[in-house]
Amino acid sequence: MSSLHPELQRTALYQLHMELGAKMVPFAGYLMPVQYPAGIIAEHHHTRNKASLFDVSHMGQIKISGKPVVQLARLLEKIVPSDISALQVGRQRYSVFTNGQGGIEDDLIVANLGDNLYLVVNAANKHADYEMLQKKLGVDCQVTMLQNMSLLALQGPIAADILQRLGADLRHLPFMGCQHVELASIPCFVARSGYTGEDGFEISVANKSALTLAKLLLNFEHIKPAGLGARDTLRLEAGLCLHGQDITSLTTPVQAGLEWVISKNRRQAQGFQGSSVILEQLTKGTLDKLVGLRLSGRLPARQGSPVLDQQGQIIGTVTSGTFSPTLEQPIALGYINQAFSKPDQEVIVQVRDQKITAIVTKLPFVSHRYYRI
Amino acid sequence: MAKKTYYTIEHEWIEVEQDIGTVGITDYAQKQLGDVVFVELPSVGKKVIQGKDMAVVESVKAASEVYAPVTGEVTAINQDLSKQPDQVNKDPTGKGWFVKLRLSNPTELSKLMDLAAYQKFIKGLS
């Protein structure tokens, strides 16, 4: 299979994925595991019930350094609308890179490590993000793509117990906290966050130690590998957007229900990329809104499925859809006309020639279980 | 007349007894699709054409077309798949069958593969 994709990159865990019997698919320039022999639904349930290990090393890890963090934060605020200056050491936050029209070029996590800022960006956008950061901030500070680092996500209710058994006491580390730890004497940078809605960790570890760490984690009885397929069903149930589908350079944070990333002081100060569009939308509202949809029956809607009102008029489009293993029914995210965007509104989703009743649903579909202290 | 099973390059199978064929997807196909969550079947009486759309299988990941292995009329559909679509994964060549067809033109079967030829075909794919 790999010989069919000589141009694709492999993560440090490629060989392990093959040994585990993963089905590998091209994704954002990498050959990645979409599922293991257990299958997407089993991997999904295992993550919600125990914990799963995901290889997300294809994502971009970027370090911004070379100046005191207060100054780095100011610089980064030129291109993200969040209050980075207020971010404490050992804390991270979710934000977006906006363009001049208020569209979302990418979404990201920013962490304050005390002497530098650490960013995690989407795999498909990482080279563009890096170049943009280099162009906009590169004169004033150092922007480094951490190519020697892998990223593993351990997600699920027993994740913290497992890391404790590898020597890291993380009881004091809340959701969106981050710190350096040693896991079985391997130096790691651990953030209590993820893309599943569960408690869990994203572990940045040197490529040369990634395989050892992955094997140590998988040695635990209740830790199993999970692929990109389960990652997608888990994030959809958790109501988390996927850049390129639910949020794009043509949709704004206000349309996407992500207005909370725009900090209050930044709204007052204005002057961030796309601020004129975004601030106007914050006061006047938008024509359409990203909503959750629960579909009747079992047929899932997919990206591009039209959303109709009872008269058959098109009022929106699905941007992501799947069959929810937890709810055992199809769920979707999509943009629909503001007038139809309130929870419990009944709409119709068209899949091929079938018209399916759907209910606008408050996100997340499945409650988050983040660790808050 | 004995039953005989034929295979298509799109990974459908058809087991033919006289002029009636039972159709499903192969084990190779179900493994490629992953967990099946819904199967959209044609209605009884529908005419299908060899190589054209006949059904749609929805896995967690994506929708995939299933093509008619031969031209004919649908005489029965597997109602159990509406409640237990995972039968397609568990027993693709048994309880996971899709439809029964009355063949309009049995000579079309000569375009399909027998088991040995199909096995050789999928070996070449991996």
Topology (SSEs and partners):
The complex is a heterodimer of chains A (373) and B (126).
Chain A: H1 14-19, E1 23-27, E2 30-35, H2 40-49, E3 51-55, E4 60-65, H3 69-76, E5 92-98, E6 104-112, E7 117-121, H4 126-137, E8 142-145, E9 149-155, H5 159-165, E10 178-183, E11 186-191, E12 200-206, H6 207-218, E13 223-225, H7 228-237, H8 264-269, H9 275-284, E14 288-295, E15 306-308, E16 314-324, E17 329-337, E18 346-351, E19 354-361
Parallel strand pairs in A: 3-13
Antiparallel strand pairs in A: 1-2, 3-9, 4-7, 4-8, 5-6, 6-7, 9-12, 10-11, 11-12, 14-17, 14-19, 15-16, 15-18, 16-17, 18-19
Chain B: E1 4-7, E2 12-17, E3 20-25, H1 27-33, E4 36-40, E5 47-48, E6 53-59, E7 63-67, E8 72-77, H2 80-83, H3 87-90, E9 99-103, H4 115-123
Antiparallel strand pairs in B: 1-2, 2-3, 3-9, 4-6, 5-8, 6-7, 8-9
Overview of this protein structure:
The complex is a heterodimer of chains A (373) and B (126). Chain A is 22% helix and 32% strand. Chain A has helices at residues 14-19, 40-49, 69-76, 126-137, 159-165, 207-218, 228-237, 264-269, 275-284, and strands at 23-27, 30-35, 51-55, 60-65, 92-98, 104-112, 117-121, 142-145, 149-155, 178-183, 186-191, 200-206, 223-225, 288-295, 306-308, 314-324, 329-337, 346-351, 354-361. In chain A, the strands form four sheets. A six-stranded mixed β-sheet of chain A has the order 10-11-12-9-3-13. Chain A has a six-stranded antiparallel beta barrel with strand order 14-17-16-15-18-19. Chain A has a five-stranded antiparallel β-sheet with strand order 5-6-7-4-8. In chain A, helix 2 (40-49) packs across helix 7. The longest helix of chain A has 12 residues, at 126-137. Chain A is globular. The N and C termini of chain A lie far apart (46 Å). The model of chain A has no long low-confidence stretch (mean pLDDT 96). By secondary structure, chain B is an alpha+beta fold. Chain B has one domain (4-103): RNA polymerase II/Efflux pump adaptor protein, barrel-sandwich hybrid domain (OB fold (Dihydrolipoamide Acetyltransferase, E2P), Beta Barrel), CATH 2.40.50. Chain B contains four helices and nine strands; from the N terminus they run βββαβββββααβα. The longest helix of chain B is centred in the C-terminal third of the chain and has 9 residues, at 115-123. The mean pLDDT of chain B is 96.
